[in-house]
Structure formats: C-alpha cells, structure tokens
Amino acid sequence: MNAIIGQPVSRVDGPAKVTGHATYAAEFDLPGLVHAAMVVAPIPRGHIRSVDTAAAERAPGVLAILTHENAPRLPYHQIPQRPQVDAQSGEQLHVLQDAEVRFNGQPVAVAVAETLEQAVHAAELVRIDYARTPALTIFDPARGRPPSEGNVKAGRVPELGRGEAEAALAAAPVRVEARYTHPREHHNAIEPHVTIAHWEGEHLTLYDKTQWVDNDRKEIAHVFGIPEERIRVVSPFVGGAFGSALRTWPHVTLAAMAAQRVGRPVRLELTRRQLYTSIGFRPHSEQHVALGATKDGRLSALKHEVIQQVGRYEEYAETVLSPTSHLYSCPNLLARYRLVEMDTNSPCPMRAPGVVTGVLGLEMAMDELAVELNIDPLELRLRNYAETDEQKGLPWSSKELRACYATAAERFGWSRRRPEPRSMREGDQLVGYGMATAIYHSDRSAATASVALTGNGGAVVRSASSDMGPGTYTSMTQVAAETLGLPLEQVRFELGDTNLPYAPVHGGSVTMASLGNAIVAACGAAQKKLADLARAAQQGPFSGLPSEAVAFHGGGLARADGSGSVVPYAELLRQHNLGWLEAEGSAQPGEETKKYSSAAFGAVFVEVRVDEALGTVRVPRIIGAYDVGRVINPKTARSQCIGGMVGGLGMALEERADWDARFGRVMNANLAEYLVPVNADIGVTEAIFVPNDDRNFNPLGVKGLAEVAICGVAPAIANAVWHATGRRIRQLPITPDVLL
Amino acid sequence: MNRFDYIRPGTVAEAVSAAAVPGSAYLAAGTNLLDLMKIGVARPERLVDLNYLPGLDAIEALPDGGVRIGARVRNADLAQDPGFRRRFPAVAEALLSGASGQLRNMATVGGNLLQRTRCPYFQDTASACNRRAPGSGCDARGGENRLHAVLGWSEACIATHPSDFCVPLVALGAVVEIAGPAGPREVPLADFHLLPGATPERESVLAPGELVTALRLPAEAAGFAAHARYVKLRERTSYAFAVVSAAAALRIEDGRIAAARLALGGVAAKPWRAEAAEAALVGAAPDAAAFQQAAEIALAEARPSGDNAFKIELARRIARRALRLAAAGTPERLPALPASPFAPLSGGLHG
C-alpha cells in the first residue's frame, strides 16, 4: 500500500475532462446570466476626448454600457505586501477610472447585454474619439534602465556578480561574445480567460480562470474596497495557463463592475485577439553574453546583460539573471538587467519566466565557446560543473546534473556526433546535433490543507490550489492516499475554491513542494486526532496506550509492537460515533533555505534536419534527462516535460508576436498566424528522470518540474542548427527567411 | 458583429434573386465568413444560406473526359474521391494540405475560391485597408508584411490569396460555372480572381448576386496525372497558410517535356499561373537546369512589397522543388503529409 507515490497513475480528473463533465469557469450556468463585451483602444497612447454610447444603448438586448464616464470609482487599495505575481513597481491598470489610454488594446468600455452577440454588437456601436499622443513603441536598448526599487526588493536586481569580470575577460586567453534575441511571445492557452461575476447582496462570487483563487479574492477585495470574506472565487478547472492566470487582470474587475451595475450575473470572456493585450506575455528580450576561458576550457569570466521590454504604467521584471549566477563554476561574473519602457500592456510570467531567457543566451554562448575551444559542448559543461551555488555560497540541497548529462547523452547517442558543422547528412538534408543545460530554481511557499476521514472509509483532502494542467488533482491524491495508507480510489482531492484552506500560487513549479508537504501534515494531523480519541477511549484496543504505542499502517490504527489487528479508519470513527473527522495541516519553508540552494536540473539533446534549399528546420528527436527530485507521478511528470519540449520547440522555430511599432499592436493576434507547434512538428520526445530524493529541500523530496522542462530546449535546437548548417542564428524564431 | 437578415433559399434561382440585394453574402460552410463576421471584418446585411439547397454537391465525370465539381462539394469529400484523386492528384494534395481535418470536412469547393486574404491589416478593423474599406489606405505597406505579395500587387494593396486548392486548379485550366441575375456564364479560373490595381475591394469577377455553382476541369488536365505535384512551404508542418507554394504538372514523352503546367501560391492576390515558364519547359529534358530556368522565368516580374524579398527566392525554390518532384512521378499513394517537403517524423502523432 505504500507504492502509490511514484506510480504512473492516470489523471483522476481525466474521465470528467474527456466526457465534458469538468466545469470550466465559462460554463457555470447561472440563472439570469448575461454577457459582456469589451471595447478596446486602437491607439498606443493618448486619451479619450469624447464617448458616444447613444447608439449602443439603443441596441437590442443592451443592459448597460460602462465607460470611464459612468463607471463606479473604485478605491484600488494597495495590498500591503504586494503579491509576487503582480508587477512590483508602478500601478496596475485602473480600468475605466480615467480617460487615459496607456496601451493599444486597453479596455475603454464594456457593453452588457442579454446575449453575447448583442453585447458584441453594442460594443461595436460605442463611438470614441481619441487624441493620440507620442508613444514609445520601439524597443531601443539604449533606453534600458535598471529595475526600480520594488523589483529590486523582490530579487529582480539590476546587477549581481562576483570577482572581477571585466579584468578577467580582458585577460582571458579565449573569448566569445554575442547578442541573442527572442521576440515577444504569448501564452495562447486553449481556454480563454473568462470571469463570471455574481453579486448576491454584498457578497460576490467569481467563477474565474485563475492559478490562484486566494490571491484573486484578495486583489478584487482591494480593488473594490470590500472585505475578503465577502468574496468567493471558484475555479475548479483551468484549461492551460502557463502563467497567464497567476495574477488578476482588469477584465475580472470589469466583470464584477458590470454585474454590480446590471444586478445580474455577468460573463466576460476575452476574445483570442484580446488575449494578446488584456493579459500579459513573455517580454521581448535582447541579451549580450561574453565568456572568457582558459585554453583547457575553464570559465574565467562571464558577463551577461539582459534587456527586456516593460510596460510604462507598471513594472514587471523577471529573474533573468538567476541561471547565469549559478549554472556554472566561474570566479568572475557580472550580470546586468535592464528594462526598456514601452507603451504596451504589461508583460507577465510565462513558463520559466526570465530563466528560459537567461538560459537561452548563456547556453548558446557556451556552444559558441565550445566551438572556439574545439571542445565537445557536453565536455565543456562538465569542465565547468558548479559543485556549489557559487553566487549564494551555499551547497546544493541536491544536484544530479552529471547523471542527467550522462543519461541523456547515452540515450541520444551523442557520441555519434561529428564535431565539424555540416558534417552530417541524410539524403539532401543536413543533420545537426545540439545540446543545452536546463535549470530552474526550486522554491516552496507556505500552504495548508485539510483532510476529512469519512465514515465510508475514505478521505477527502482539500486545499485552495489549482490544476492548470500538470496534474495537481492526481498527484495530491497520490500523496494523500499513500500517507493515509488508503487505496487511490478512496481518496478525493478538491481544489480551486477560496472556501478551502489557503494554498500558495500554482506557479513557479512550487505546488508539489509546498502543498504536497501540507497534505502530508494534514494527513498526519487527522491520524493523530483519531489516535488520540482511540487512546482516550474508556475501552477498545488502544484505550490508555501512550502515543508511541500506536501507529497507523494499512489504512488503520494498530499497536506499534505489531500485536493485535489493524482497526480501519471507518471502524474507529464508528466506535466514536463520528460521521467524519477533519484536521488541517500546513507546511512552510524552513531553515533549509539558509543552508542550501535548491534547483531542478536537466540536460536536453536534440537532433535537427535542415532542408537547406527551403530553409526549414525539423526536429525529429528531443531527449531530456531531468533531476527534479523525487517524482510523485512519472506519467504526469513526463507529460509536463514533453509539454515543455513542445513549448521550447515553438520558441526556437515558430513563436513570434508581429509587433507593428507604428500602432503598438500585435498584428498576428490569432492562432492561425501566431504559430505554435502542431503534432506533425513533433517527433520523438523522451523525458528521463534520474533518481533523486531531495529531503534537504523538503520532506517529500520533490523539487518541481514545470519550468525546468522548457528551459534549454530552444538553445539546444539553435545549437543543433549551427551544427547542421554552420550558421549561428542568434535571433529566434529560426524561420525559413532567416536560414535561406 | 452586426444584425443581418437570414434567408434560406430552396433553389439556385431563389438564391440568386435573394442575393442580388446589395449587402448580401452567400453562406456555405461559413469556415471563413463566420469568422470574419465575428471579428467585424465581414458585415453582410443579408446572409443567403446555401446549405439547404438541393444539388450542387456532385462530382460528375463528363462525357468529354472532364469533371464537374458542384460548388457545395466538401473539400474532404473531393480529396477522398478515389476517381478524382487518381486523375487529379495535385489537386487532392493541395486540398489535403489546407486547414485542418475538421475544416476540410465543412469547407466547400465554391467557398474555397472566395476565401479572403489573411493579411493581418485586412483582418483587423482598427487598421487601414483598401480591400476592406476602400480608400482608407493600406497599413500593410510599411508594416508587418513579411508574408505579403511579390507579384501583381499595387500601391493600394499587397495582400495574397490564401487558397491552396486554387493553385493546381489554375495550373490545370479549371473553369468556374456561375449562375446570376443575368443568367449563367462561365469564366476560366485564371480570370476569376482580380489583381488589386486601384480597386482591391473587387476580388473576383462575380457581380452582385452571382453564385459559383460548379468548377470544371477539362479532360486534358487528367493527362498530367502521372507527373503532378503540389508543394507548400509553411512555417509549421501542418495547419498553416503557405509562405509560398507551387503546383507543377508535366507530360513527359520520350524523355522530353511535352506539356507543362506551373502555378504559384502565396505570392499574389490570385493563384499565379506561370505560362511563360510553362512554355520554356516544353521540349526540354526534365532536369535541374530546365527547372531552374523555368523558376527564374516564373518570378521574373517579382518584386518585394515590403520585408519579403526572401519570398521571391523561396518561390523560385519551391517551384523547382515542385517540378523536380513532379518529374520524379506522382507517388502511388498520397504522401502522409500531403504537399509537404517532409516525410512524417517517427514517434509523433500525425493527421
């Protein structure tokens, strides 16, 4: 019964999802539900001179047209400790609170009507006269400035380093230096962002797409200036998010505002085009990497500057320097981070935010250094293996990256690679092998869970967490079932509701390391409560025993010495006339963060085929080996990893927002022209987990694996393209026009 | 989205009469029109729904050896018709390289001819577009125009026609049958679409109320069946519009090209037949030199309309690739990835 953790259990919510029984936010069918449609500004900066809603208000079915002229003034209270998912400086968009236009696509009005079509129609009839003012729509690295104080406090520092990087670089016998760019990228989850807002008196219920119900509630409570207790957020299923649903966006406020105005529940669903401006995106990034090394390939200097776009009304910054600071051993390091203000909606976290960017530049530069040194790219990484986190000056809580390199290289057949570029062919296609390292720092946050042992012998576990796709429902069920000694089928896990115990954000790969341990604690608390009852009873097999004389195993309580029989939970409850028994447990980071640095690691190897005549790149194989600590569910873990590989392939070869600087607008704001990979783009994708169990980091021994899976994929592909063609493409995506 | 009248005619005559009212649009599968209505680009005042018309849905072999395809035949049905596929393999390949399985199951032959451009400025009502709003200007000029036209464009419009299907059709001399208020007529497909000139809003020769009722391929088109290919370059392996594409069809006799057809897609506001290149191929040996020369001729008039000079070279190369593959012979079975320069990747899921 103790082998549920580590089993490739199929998703417990799978049948509900594939049969349509899983209710997503848009699908809550409330009596009297009406619909809202947004009007968005078509200019990048300026203000509204006048609004004419007369025609819109006369349109059939219309219940209200809200603009900055008639919308309620909302207090937008500051949250004392700004949630880490929010921009850490500046001020979020105060929607419909003034006449200013801060970016193209900003909501400036909302139409509410009986049907969606009537709302859309009415929205088109709103006439707005704009005064356009000069806008910052061009990414100019020369305008780069350090992150401001709020971000610095949150760890998004302008500089970090050690030693004397400049001097060491100047003195290095071997140097490489290059610039790398990736464009603005969008999450493009299948499920659009949507909110249903329903006021009942002073109480507001939000059915929302969110990765963090608790924070969603807090944000809206502060925006509206009402106590959190009057708000409930419900979000049982999320159809993909990749970070876009971490924070609370303006449309949630609009839905609540509209519902208040019309006195009916209101649904506001963003259109695909609006998903490019009403939520965030991965910011356009340019970076400069300079590496200095000894002739035998030891890094002596590492300089890395990353410059990213940022909105002007608030400042979202990323941990781009994190991988550079500790991925390799190097005594002299200088990393710098700059932001270029632009008139755009604010960027936000997108899978492995910042880190995927930093890893891209560093891992492409390492490949260039390997060429310069004439050393195998894998060997170069091994020669610079960081035995400790040299920036923090701490040992790793665990690090099995060597095993990752060895396992993936062996599986891939890296030894067959001929070092010379253009040296491998099949038919009329050039073949290239490339590799890169992946890393993502492991964090955990305070979390709580409850466990109810029920009279039917099962258990219900609850926490206000989320499952945007990784399999939270399934893996948490496994953790609870194993801890309680119950079969999987007898445990149910509930999430996605602010009525449940507090959970941290479902992002940053923290969910299992945070909530998993809280569930273990809650299971223990419930067991202890039950054991205490049994020991305190006047009669029965455990009456009067000291606590150390009893133990739970096999789904019930027994004497610790093994004598007597196991009394199942249900039997114990019955003996005490209890229908159920519930307890809460929590877990939080402890001293380990002072003693260790923690990260998930990976090694990614890819093969590309390049048709030189047409400039096309195909990727028949991606093999990754990962150290993510203990793996709770290898099936869902593998799904996460191959999802990351697909995302990384998109980043390398396909994804790009076509930004028209004249208008500050994304022109390919749809899924036909903004390309993400299709099945036919994907060949063999294989994820291998090297054995590890990181008890230094947390009792469950897990690290976290969502983010690390996308890191390293794009640079490995770009490095393979170099190997195939001899051409170093430093600007993503690598499309035929670039390679021709 | 605007309010509109909805009419469901029972006959072609009723349809034509209903749609002769200005502001009308025919609705077939709606795979393009309904999307455009939802984003406010198409705003018909009246929808004339053809889905309940009897007929127009047959694939008929004609006595002279040609074929007539009813305008309401679904793309998937046509592509999967064994006789059609055998005789016009490049057309089947083009059909199967377009859109997705779900869309092909709905989309119709007639509707395919009348697809609107994917130009992002046409698709975005906040942008100036002479095609969508005559006289408003063209924001694609000087904008994001990497994928725009390199042939036949004008100062007023640099958009391309997105159809795959039309490319082999125009190469093979397809004819469009039309019903209209002034009676039936027929137009060669090569003359059906209009280059933008000063009036890009006029996309085809159809007059108000005119309805495409069928397409015909002449008997001689089947004479190319042994050497006919469609090749499409796109920035992902499926479910993407062509950056450039080419349909090539050859009749090879005694080691020489006896007849040649070549058309390009993704390069102009219409499927672009390269007749001068075809003429240059006749009598030549089917070799790389001949194909290179033909490709040069086909693109001789090309010029970039923006950041798209690469498309000229890419179009030459896709033309050469299509000619080379056609010369090698039509494969026994349709390729698993139709029209793709690639074979499927093993290990992946395809379809």
TrEMBL record, chain A:
Aldehyde oxidase/xanthine dehydrogenase a/b hammerhead domain span: 19-134
Cited InterPro entries: Ald_Oxase/Xan_DH_a/b, Ald_Oxase/Xan_DH_a/b_sf, Ald_Oxase/xanthine_DH-like, AldOxase/xan_DH_MoCoBD1, AldOxase/xan_DH_MoCoBD2, AldOxase/xan_DH_Mopterin-bd_sf
Pfam families (UniProt xref): Ald_Xan_dh_C, MoCoBD_1, MoCoBD_2
Matches recorded under PANTHER family: DEHYDROGENASE, XANTHINE DEHYDROGENASE
Protein name as it appears in the record: Xanthine dehydrogenase family protein molybdopterin-binding subunit
UniProtKB/TrEMBL annotation, chain B:
UniProt xrefs under SUPFAM superfamilies: CO dehydrogenase flavoprotein C-terminal domain-like, FAD-binding/transporter-associated domain-like
Domain FAD-binding PCMH-type: 1-222
Keywords, comma-separated and alphabetical: FAD, Flavoprotein
The keyword Flavoprotein is assigned to this record: yes
InterPro entries hit by this protein: CO_DH_flav_C, CO_DH_flav_C_dom_sf, Diverse_Substr_Oxidored, FAD-bd_PCMH, FAD-bd_PCMH-like_sf, FAD-bd_PCMH_sub1, FAD-bd_PCMH_sub2, Mopterin_DH_FAD-bd
Entries under PROSITE patterns matching the protein: FAD_PCMH
Record protein name field: Xanthine dehydrogenase family protein subunit M
Organism, scientific name: Belnapia mucosa
